[in-house]
Each structure stands twice: as C-alpha cells, then as structure tokens.
Amino acid sequence: LRVETILDVAKRRGIPLPAYTVEDMRRICVIHQPATLTEFLGKFAEYMHVIAGDREAIKRIAYEFVEDKAKEGVIYVEVRYSPHLLANTDVEPIPWNQEEGDLSPDEVVHLVNQGLAEGEKAYKIKARSILCCMRHMPSWSMDVVELCKKYKKNGVVAIDLAGDESLNCEAFPGHRMAYEEAARCGIHRTVHAGEVGPASVVKEAVEVLKAERVGHGYNTLKDQVLYKQLLEQNMHFEVCPISSRLTGACHPDFTEHPVITFRKDKANYSLNTDDPLIFNSNLHLDYSTAQKYMGFTEEEFKRLNINSANSSFLPEKEKKDLVNELYEAYGMIRLNGNTTNQEPTTLNSYFHSGMSMLLCVHTLN
Ligand SMILES: *[C@@H]1O[C@H](CO)[C@@H](O)[C@H](O)[C@H]1NC(C)=O
Ligand SMILES: *[C@@H]1O[C@H](CO)[C@@H](O)[C@H](O)[C@H]1NC(C)=O
C-alpha cells in the first residue's frame, strides 16, 4: 500500500487522517525500531478505514502492488490479505468502525483479482493471491474457504490463517473446519505459526490444519523433535527477515536469525517481504540484509529462489515453467534433473537482472 494512495483516497472520500503529507503519514505508519506484534497490528488502524469499503481504492492498491513488485524484479508473487477486513457488508462485526455499506468480502476478492490481473498485463509478471482467515474471527473462516473455492480458477491459490497466535484452533473449531474443507477441495494451505507463538502452534498448523507451508515458523527451532520431523518432511518455511526483527519475533541481531539455521540445515524456505508500508521495506532490503548480516551467497539465493518457485501454489505445469524460467535466468541448465552452472552471474547483476522471486507473506491490508 502506497502512502500517496492513502492520502489520495482520504481526500476524495473526505476522511480525516492523522497526517496530510506523505512524510508525516509515513512517519505514523512505519515501525523503525523493534516493537511488539501488537504495536505492529495497531498500525493498520491508522489507514485501513480509508481503504476499506472503497471499490476504486481496493482495485487500485492491487494494481499498484503488482507495479511495485515488478519494479523490484519479481516475476511471480503470492500476495495475501483478509477480504473481510476490506469489506463493509456481509461481515460481522463491520471492521474499522465503518458504517454498513454495500461492499462484501466476495466483491473485495473480485476487485483485488481485477487489479492484480490488470497489473499482470501491464507489467508482464504473474500475481496470485492467498486469502487470510483471522485467528480472532473463526466465524469468518468458512466464508474464506468458500471464496477460495469460488475464485480458484481466477487468481486465488490458497488459504492462510493470520493474527494472534495465542488463539489456538482447539478452542476455535471454525478454523479447523475451514481447513478441512480446503484440504477436501484441493485448496492449498499455509498458516502463520511460530512467529511469536510457540512451537506448539506450528505443530497444530501442520498436524491439525494440514498446512503445506508455515508462515514464519521461527519458533519451530525451540522444539527440536518437531523441527527434525519438518526437515524430513521438507516443510516449507516462509521467512521474512526484516519483519521478524521489527515485530520482536526474532532477536534484533540479524546474525542470530533462525533462517541461518534453516540454511545450514538445507531446509525448504523462501525469503519474503511482509507489510512493506509498515516496515518501510522491499524485497531488496530483505535480500541485502540476508547477504550483509547472515552470510547469504549468490548460490544460496539461487537455490532458495528455485525452492520458492517449486513451493509456489501454482498448478504443476505453471510451477515447472516458473522453475525453468529461473534456471534459464541463472544460466543453469538442467540435465536429467541435475543442474550445472553455465555462466555464473555476479551478485550485482543478479540484483539487477530483474529475476528475484517473491513468495507470499505480503499483505495488502
Ligand atoms: C521440487 O520438489 C519436488 C518434491 O516435491 C522435488 O522432487 C523436486 O526435485 C524439486 N524440484 C526442484 C527443481 O527443486
Ligand atoms: C518445499 O515445500 C513445498 C510446499 O509444501 C513443496 O511443494 C516442495 O515440494 C518442497 N520442496 C521439496 C524439495 O520437497
């Protein structure tokens, strides 16, 4: 979400904001120092009331998102958001103190799909979406899986569960039911787990919700039995370096980040951005952080990007094409499944070659 867009839309709709210049508004929205997840979630309240319920704004944000990612060199992205948090009817309670209106979660998904599709055409990259259930709103979850089913052929590739991890699914069966339905209907599944919550949340995500990928997953390392099991299963971890520091999920010293262990253990993981507005970040910043403080090399970036592509929620054929596109871009040729390096590119040219991958943990709201 661009600050400029928030200001524009607020002006058009006559909605008051805590600030009226790009600089001031950015200062209010951005977290600079390690904070808490609660503080981070509080930032949404500064601007979500401007966007929610507004058709033009929602479509515009989806379109601009694709533009921004294309400019970061991304060729395929999975973006996630909660349709309910952008609606103002057919949602209980109506979020952000909005008056009841006529924009339903269903139409929100339709508008986001339109914005993404127009962005794809204009910027020649591929964008798919993942719809989020919210931990504190189990009554929305069945709706979310129905929307995943309805728009499965139309841009939506998976279901996610986001929010406060202290709310487990044992106590809130709405999420479990939605995930069972997702599994039954072949809807891909990811779950935010082990970000600030304990390893037990990861265990529940994998065993009860049948997650195919784990959002963040850092605290898995605190249960070595579980970690070994997930390594063996090749479970995919969606890692967001900058976010994990600023939400207080990980030690503020990047040299102690759990992804260093994931790398050493050759785990299945991707590097992603998370809420670029609030963390004032982009994919380059996440990659350069991994390079500067965590000892990531070009070889590792390539390996993890190919892994990311192979872990995407695209249909098999499209997934293969994406993986092959990366092999080609990296000058690697595949021989009977083995790869050889043709002409190694330098890290610098990698960063500018327009070939970085971004998977998921990217939110619109
Ligand atoms: C993709 O993942 C499958 C396992 O699901 C594995 O067999 C295959 O080798 C992987 N391909 C690449 C290119 O990493
Ligand atoms: C990594 O995880 C993804 C997502 O579940 C999966 O599709 C992929 O096959 C895994 N990679 C390997 C090498 O098993």
Automatic annotation (TrEMBL):
Pfam families membership: A_deaminase
Gene Ontology CC terms: cytoplasmic vesicle lumen; cytosol; external side of plasma membrane
Segments forming domain Adenosine deaminase: 2-328
Keywords from the named record: Hydrolase, Metal-binding, Zinc
Top-level EC class: hydrolase
GO MF annotation terms: adenosine deaminase activity; metal ion binding
GO biological process: adenosine catabolic process; hypoxanthine salvage; inosine biosynthetic process; negative regulation of adenosine receptor signaling pathway; purine ribonucleoside monophosphate biosynthetic process; T cell activation
Coiled coil: none
Membrane topology: Peripheral membrane protein
Reported cofactor(s): Zn(2+)
Record's keyword annotation contains Zinc: yes
Protein location: Cell membrane; Cytoplasmic vesicle lumen
Keyword Hydrolase: yes
Enzyme Commission number, as recorded: 3.5.4.4
PANTHER family for this protein: ADENOSINE DEAMINASE (PTHR11409:SF43)
Family of this protein: Belongs to the metallo-dependent hydrolases superfamily. Adenosine and AMP deaminases family.
UniProt protein name: Adenosine deaminase
Organism: Oncorhynchus kisutch
Top-level taxonomy: Eukaryota, Metazoa, Chordata, Craniata, Vertebrata
